[in-house]
Write a structure and sequence with these properties.
DNA polymerase, domain 1, 277 residues, mainly alpha, 4% strand, hpI Integrase, Chain A, 2 domains
Length: 277
């Protein structure tokens, strides 16, 4: 069975490649879709999958209106899985190794100027529990430049209110100094809002939903969508737009690019240079 090695492959992604839980879940979902297709075709032996069979699979996916980005991800997942099988002497060839891949149109970098960003951050109601929480989330997302996965994984112990420093864990551990305004909103949330949301099962997760559970990616997206609905942009504003915006705005003000690189947790300076206009 082609899928019998999936659990071991997931362990490999976690232990050997140190991938995040969300990335591993994405690999798992992609492989399940692929295996379901193979099962319908009566294919169970990994050696029986060839380039032509993959072309048929991808044609079916395109017929289901899957985007080029999704197709590219499917190919990358299959290629990675087969590389693992070959390394473990399960099969001898990788059918995805020389597949033609779609060319992706380069998306423009969407950023929001600092005045508009401040307007977004200050939109939530200042006196309500939900408003205090949302204001702290928006400010932290912008002023720390964190990724979504990093934000929802933050704990109360990772924020030091005395120094105004957030310690970010994950694949790019780092310490980020936030603005005075962001610290003010975080302190207000921790003192006057979070204690009213927590329940007996909450733990030390920093940002909570209104039921006292940890904030999810979907919940964060809803917050961003709600408060950014009045911002004029021909492109979708996402949580990552906040990260792009702080980097671009700092560069415009003359901040050192190496400091911005460290704040964002980039592995190399070339990733940071995309924010130069």
């Amino acid at each position: 069975m082609i899928g019998k090695y999936v659990d071991d492959y997931m362990d490999y992604l976690h232990v050997d490649r140190n991938l995040s839980a969300n990335t591993i879940m994405s690999y798992n979902r992609d492989l399940k879709i692929f295996f379901d297709y193979l099962a319908r075709c009566g294919i169970h032996d990994p050696e029986k999958v060839d380039k032509n069979e993959l072309k048929k699979y991808l044609k079916e996916m395109r017929g289901m209106k899957k985007s080029d980005a999704t197709i590219l991800r499917y190919i990358a997942t299959i290629k990675s899985y087969y590389s693992y099988l070959i390394d473990n002497n399960v099969c001898t060839k990788n059918p995805a190794s020389d597949l033609d891949t779609p060319k992706l149109e380069k998306k423009p970098l969407v950023t929001i100027d600092e005045n508009s960003m401040l307007k977004i951050i200050n939109t939530p109601e200042k006196e309500t529990v939900k408003g205090k929480r949302d204001r702290a989330i928006l400010a932290t997302l912008y002023y720390s430049g964190v990724r979504v996965s990093e934000l929802i994984a933050l704990t109360t112990g990772q924020y030091d209110s005395q120094s105004g420093i957030i310690t970010i864990s994950g694949k790019a551990p780092r310490k980020v100094s936030i603005s005075r305004l962001c610290a003010e909103y975080l302190d207000d949330y921790l003192t006057n809002a979070r204690p009213k949301i927590v329940n007996s099962q909450t733990g030390d997760t920093l940002f909570l939903n209104m039921k006292g559970n940890g904030m999810t990616r979907q919940g964060l997206w809803k917050i961003i969508k709600y408060y950014c609905k009045d911002i004029e942009s021909e492109y979708e504003i996402t949580p990552h737009t906040f990260r792009h915006s702080i980097a671009a705005n700092m560069l415009m003000k003359g901040e050192d690019i190496h400091r911005i690189k460290e704040m964002l947790g980039h592995a190399d300076i070339y990733s940071t240079k995309i924010y130069r206009k």
